[in-house]
Every structure is written in structure tokens, then in C-alpha cells.
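Render LysR family transcriptional regulator in 3D.
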Amino acid sequence: MEIRHFKTLRAIVEKGSFIKASEALNYAQSSVTSHIQAIEEYYGQPVFDRIGRRVVLNVFGKTVYSHAIRLLETYDTVCNLTADADRPSGKLRIGAPESTMIYRLYPVLWQYKEMYPDVEIIMQNFICPRMRGALRTGELDLAILLEPRRADADLCIDELIQEEMSIVLPGDYPNRQLTSTAGLAVLYTEKGCSYREIFQGLLAKQGIHAENIVETGSIEVIRRYVLCGIGLSFLPTITVREEIESGAIRHIPWQNDPPVMIQLARHKDKWITPAMRAFIRLTIEHAKEW
């Protein structure tokens, strides 16, 4: 097997098909197929399940892929070494929830790119469980988690701040406390989101059964829908602070228990590149002002 075979494997997983991988790599499709055949012949078993026109990593393939990603990371690092090896460069892959990405990280990214223009930053908007998994497979270098404290033996986590959370309601919601949905839709973030689970617990505690539900992965969509009077939700207070101050949105501050924390995470076995080290330093500095 050769490095290029694993690069092809990575491209297929990232692009979702042999055809798209061949286009991204500028290979003939037959070359992509032969690279995967070389891997499968070496191990004596397939790495993909072929379901119609779709290819999906099987259980063994996921194991191979997780190790291949780490191998390719090391290979890319060696290839990108320069005489100024301590200067941040190369790619930096960061995962973050949308709210944190929009309302917290933009000053960090602005300063980082001013200081280190040679670093290519790839931002991914993932829910926290997926980010933890992506740190383990090497798909992400760093992750900004927004969830209650949770220990993981294989992750190094720096707590940055406790994020204030609120039940958010249209400005004309009739009560000071959440006693009913008052005919409004319940606006949920996507399944797996840590504070969706908290919100569901709050509704259950109030004896509110959500029947009219809208689910979306976009915090901005939820904010807009609350503003337009479509529904109510549960969000980081910072995402609706201006609307609260203007009276366009009402909110019920949540007494964080357990507290929702913004946390900076990385895999404990991952080498901290100069690009990662610089981002960690800047993020911790900025978090003091959040």
C-alpha cells in the first residue's frame, strides 16, 4: 500500500462517492477504484459497503479510516515543514457550534488571520457529540464545545466561560414564566445538541408536551422565528441580547444547573502544531473578555 491509496480513501469519505473523489483528486475513476482495491486486497476484506450507488464505510473500514487519518496528518505535517518550523502554517480544522462561531469566535479569527495569514482555517459547524468523535478520528484539530461539563479520558479540555442560557419567547408572550406554549411552535435545535436536551427537560418539568415542533440546525433561523412570533426556544442569551434589550423578544434566564460551558478541546495524543498552539493561546486570551 502507498500513501496515495489512503489519500484516496480520505477523499471518498469526505466527498461521499468514488466519482466526486476522482474529480477532487484529478484521477481517472479507474485509478480511484484500483487504490481502494489495493487496500482491500492487502487486508483481505472490503472497507466499503456498496449500497446501490452509495458507498459507506463498514465497521472494518471505519477502523482503517481512523488510523489512516492520523497517518495522513503526520504525513502532511512532515511535508509542510519549513526552515521556520515554529511559524504557524498549513491547515487548521476547527469545530464549533453556530452560536459560538458567530458571537464568540469572530474576534479570535480576525486577529489570528491578521497574525498568521499562512494558516488555512477550515471551520465546521458540528453538534458536540460529533465534534468529540471528530477529534478522536483526526477529522478536527480543535473543537469549541458548548455543553455541560463532561470528562473524557482521551480528550484535553480547557473550560473558557459559563454561557448564559435563556428560554426565548416572542415579545408579546402573555406570561412572565413559561406555563404553556400559548399556541406557539417549539423550536428545537437538531437532535444531539446538548442544550436541546436541557430544553426538553425544562418543558417536561413544567408539564408541557411539545406537539407543534420545528427542528433546525440553524440558531439564526430559530432567532428569526422567535422574533416573528412563530415559536419559542432555548438559546445562548448572547444570540438574542439585542432583541431582549429592545423588547422584541422576551426571555426567562435559566439558572444553569448543570452549567453550560464553552470549552476548548483537543485529543490528548495529538501533536500540538504551531498553528494549534497559536489558536489555543488567542482563544484563551479572548475568553477572558467574554
